[in-house]
Amino acid sequence: MKYDFDKVIDRRGTDSIKWAVKDNELPMWVADMDFAVAPEILSALRNRVDHGVYGYTEPQDDWYESCIGFHLRRHDWKIEKDALLFSTGVVPSISSAVRAFTAKGDEIIVFTPVYNIFFNSIVNNGRVIRDVPLLLKGGRYFIDFDGFHKAASDPKTKMLIFCNPANPVSRIWSGEELKEVARIAKENGILILSDEIHGEITAPGPSYVPFLKAVPEAAPYLFTCISPTKCFNLAGIQTSAIVVPDETLRAKIRRQINTDEVAEPNVFACLAAATAWSKGEAWLDECREYLFANRKAVEDFLVKRVPKIHCLPGDATYLLWLDIRAICEDDAVFADFLREKTGLFVSKGSVYGSGGKGFLRLNVACPRSLLMDGLARLAQGVSLFEKENRR
Predict the structure, then answer these.
(1) pLDDT score for 1
(2) What residue spans define the domains of the chain?
(3) CB within 10 Å: which end of the chain, N or C, has fewer?
(4) Per CATH, is 26-36+281-390 categorized as 3.30.300.30?
(5) Which residues contact 389 (CB under 8 A, 6 or more apart)?
């Protein structure tokens, strides 16, 4: 490999949320990577830092062109320049959209288990979560279209916040599934916000299906949040885009993100994104290979060492969904035990809503040596837990 993903970089003392842990603890929870960014990005940022003047800035042609070019090359998805809005992040965009298109007391659909911050964007704005659990069949998750239709037909329901690909269950939704989601939404007057921040983190080979590419005719009631932050490890830069082809929707969301003061980039935000999109693809492709080799290492380890834990198959994200129900039905109890006894810090499945109880989310975006350390701690934790519970 051209890029070194095996290098262990000490992130303690860098104000990292992920690494704000005790000395003996290994964090494998929050979704950022323990890899240095692509050297092309680092070089661009260094040059900007060396300039020494950090005044106000706004997106320029290179930001638009790099975003459009990247998505056209990788997904054959043509994004029009006029459809693009800058935002400081996908989560701020979601919260702004909730305020722009719904009223207090309205219900918003989520397919659970799903990224838990969706719940915050709904509840913190005085809206109501309408939970439509995914269906788990043969170790794979599917959308409950009957449940979605029932929820969408309720007059109180106004929006669907959709995760494509799905975090934490690692599903790439097919074009057929997306078309059915769009059909039900249209029939019932439901607006769709598609969070596609994990779209580039897929197994080498398969590509995710952008919702607006699969169903371009849904533009009057569908818009998408994208960002290079997950796939290029730029979360702290705070940079994203909203793709809104429909002029009426775009005017409303533009007004709201400006009202919420999340429409203006910091001095590094557009530069980092444009460099990633225009010069970072070689790094991204190697990173994907490394991440899915890490997934394979976890799967092999569990089969050999901890067969009671099942890693659900997945073709997207660096977040693995582990079924621990053969060991403990209460994921919170086991996750707390694991952290206390071994120092391994993982995410509790129950925080992701219905269907998450009895599961853990494991972040494998780290050097292989840290991954194997984490797996050894997991095996130790299972052994200790079973010993204590046999007494």
Answers:
(1) 83
(2) 26-36+281-390, 42-279
(3) C
(4) no
(5) none
Cα dist. 388→302, 337, 381, 383, 384 in Å?
Answer: 21, 11, 11, 9, 6
Q: Please write the tens of the pLDDT for every residue from 98-136.
A: 999 999 999 999 999 999 999 999 999 999 999 999 999
Residue type, 364: V
Q: Give the right CATH number for 42-279 from 3.40.50.720, 3.90.228.20, 3.30.980.10, 3.40.640.10.
A: 3.40.640.10
Tokens of 142: 């599917």
Alpha-helical regions (H) of the chain: 39-51, 61-75, 90-101, 117-123, 145-152, 175-188, 211-214, 247-259, 269-279, 281-305, 331-342, 368-390
- In one-letter notation, the amino acid at residue 156 is K
Q: Give Cα separations from 47 to 270, 277, 352 (angstroms).
A: 14, 18, 40
3-state helix, strand, coil in the chain (%, to 5): 45, 15, 40
Q: Rg of the chain over CA atoms, in angstroms? A: 21
Nearest by Cα to 305 from 228, 199, 227, 381: 381
Q: What is the pLDDT of residues 148-207, one digit of tens each?
A: 999 999 999 999 999 999 999 999 999 999 999 999 999 999 999 999 999 999 998 878
What pLDDT, in 10s, does the model give residues 248-295?
Answer: 999 999 999 999 999 999 999 999 999 999 999 999 999 999 999 999
